[in-house]
Amino acid sequence: MEKHLAEGVPAPDFSLPAHDGRTIRLSDYKGKNHVILYFYPKDDTPGCTKEACAFRDDYNKFKPFGVEILGVSTDPIASHQAFARKYDLNFPLLADEKKEVARLYGALNPEKGYARRMTYLIDKDGIIRRIMPNVTVDGHSEELFTAVKALAPSLPME
């Protein structure tokens, strides 16, 4: 049964393989980093490429705020590796081939069988602070940066 996720509740833990050979567990970041967990449909498609490249370009803006970015799709590792290499992506892409994490987070598009574009902002205590269910690629990274600054207002602004 699908768990109902909402802002203010703990984010469910998961473990997935990353394109760089690591296994990423959400719980690895607890107590250390905020996490942008973004789900996307397919590697190397126009919208997904634009979204990933915006996160890549803004990565250094997020770092001083203790933010890690994790991209998740149902594509296999080999596809993620090619996508990350082609666009020089500087954050992990996680392969959810069994579609379990996308389903758990309500991001699985049941008609299409792959993840829909959806983002979670999870604070360093593991609590979901923002759920963005209908992401528009343009301006998404900037919108998240504004939300991150609200989580950590004492840090220097750019």
From TrEMBL:
<comment type="function">
    <text>Thiol-specific peroxidase that catalyzes the reduction of hydrogen peroxide and organic hydroperoxides to water and alcohols, respectively. Plays a role in cell protection against oxidative stress by detoxifying peroxides and as sensor of hydrogen peroxide-mediated signaling events.</text>
</comment>
<dbReference type="InterPro" id="IPR050924">
    <property type="entry name" value="Peroxiredoxin_BCP/PrxQ"/>
</dbReference>
<keyword id="KW-0575">Peroxidase</keyword>
<dbReference type="InterPro" id="IPR036249">
    <property type="entry name" value="Thioredoxin-like_sf"/>
</dbReference>
<feature type="domain" description="Thioredoxin">
    <location>
        <begin position="5"/>
        <end position="153"/>
    </location>
</feature>
<dbReference type="InterPro" id="IPR000866">
    <property type="entry name" value="AhpC/TSA"/>
</dbReference>
<dbReference type="GO" id="GO:0045454">
    <property type="term" value="P:cell redox homeostasis"/>
</dbReference>
<dbReference type="GO" id="GO:0005737">
    <property type="term" value="C:cytoplasm"/>
</dbReference>
<keyword id="KW-0560">Oxidoreductase</keyword>
<keyword id="KW-0676">Redox-active center</keyword>
<dbReference type="GO" id="GO:0008379">
    <property type="term" value="F:thioredoxin peroxidase activity"/>
</dbReference>
<protein>
    <recommendedName>
        <fullName>thioredoxin-dependent peroxiredoxin</fullName>
        <ecNumber>1.11.1.24</ecNumber>
    </recommendedName>
</protein>
<keyword id="KW-1015">Disulfide bond</keyword>
<dbReference type="InterPro" id="IPR024706">
    <property type="entry name" value="Peroxiredoxin_AhpC-typ"/>
</dbReference>
<dbReference type="InterPro" id="IPR013766">
    <property type="entry name" value="Thioredoxin_domain"/>
</dbReference>
<comment type="similarity">
    <text>Belongs to the peroxiredoxin family. BCP/PrxQ subfamily.</text>
</comment>
<keyword id="KW-0049">Antioxidant</keyword>
<feature type="active site" description="Cysteine sulfenic acid (-SOH) intermediate; for peroxidase activity">
    <location>
        <position position="48"/>
    </location>
</feature>
<dbReference type="Pfam" id="PF00578">
    <property type="entry name" value="AhpC-TSA"/>
</dbReference>
<dbReference type="GO" id="GO:0034599">
    <property type="term" value="P:cellular response to oxidative stress"/>
</dbReference>
<comment type="subunit">
    <text>Monomer.</text>
</comment>
